[in-house]
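hiii, so i know i said id send this last week but things got crazy w the move. better late than never?? heres the sequnce for the chain we talked about at the cafe, plus the structure i predicted for it. fair warning i was half asleep when i ran it
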Amino acid sequence: MHQSWRYVAAVVAGALFAGAGGLTVGLEIWSFALAVSAALVLGQFRFFGGQGKQVPVVAAFALANGSAESATALGQLLLMVGLGALSALLTNFVMAPAIRFRDAENAVLDFTDTMRDLASGLAEELRGEVSESRIDYWTRRSESLDSIAGSAWDAVERQENRVRLNPRRLLPRQQTPKRLSGYRTWILALERASRDVESITKGLQNLYGGHYDHIALGGEFQHAYADLLEETASILQGIHDEQEPGRDTVSKQLAHRLDEALASVSECRRRMMRDPGDEEPARAALFTDLSRLLGELNRAREHSGESG
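okay and structure toks below
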């Protein structure tokens, strides 16, 4: 729309320059050169943007075909330009695709799926015979979350640019800003939570990679922590299934499950930290990271609106 108005303004300016010469002194070589030169200068103004080149083109055209010597001909020229611009705008409104957010939505849900796979994968490792090579694998997977977050941000930015160029955004009942704001909220939360996932994997890597030979988490702790990770993975799956980032209000089920998960972490921490011995720092760090991860998801839920 902005380009259409600039185009009309450029044509009007060019016609005025042509008329200033044609209606006063007539078509003379010197008046032609003066009008076109002045139009060239005016066309450089930032107001016209990329349409500035139309100012001298219209001025030269109107002078060359004699339209500049007749007020009626100039009026007809401006009328045709106005009708053409209006027709283009109406065509864009009719032919423009409906505003959808599929790319942005998929980027956020893909981010969620990767986080879910990491939590579920780590839970499975802790329930079995933990091997250094497998923990190293999940650590590398967690380190790739930064690039996934960057891709999600890029997808939302591209969506914002497409929306700005889509004239349907001017129609009533378009909730574009709110929808995109919801995606940004969840990407930010997932990006912060991804750092906690990375911290968890690196903590396990240090424990099972031989960095602390005298510390072992113990089978009971491993299974309890695996249950918490599985519960976290289930919440992330629920975010995907319910398409929470695209909702106007957060589902009651997600709010309830997040509250339950945070309570489970607190209870497990209380039970497992009664007499941890040398394991205390390692256990405390793992509990803290998981609490922060769930806390980030909970903040995204709170900022997305009241439960509906």
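btw The chain has a mean pLDDT of 78. thought thatd interest u
miss u guys!!
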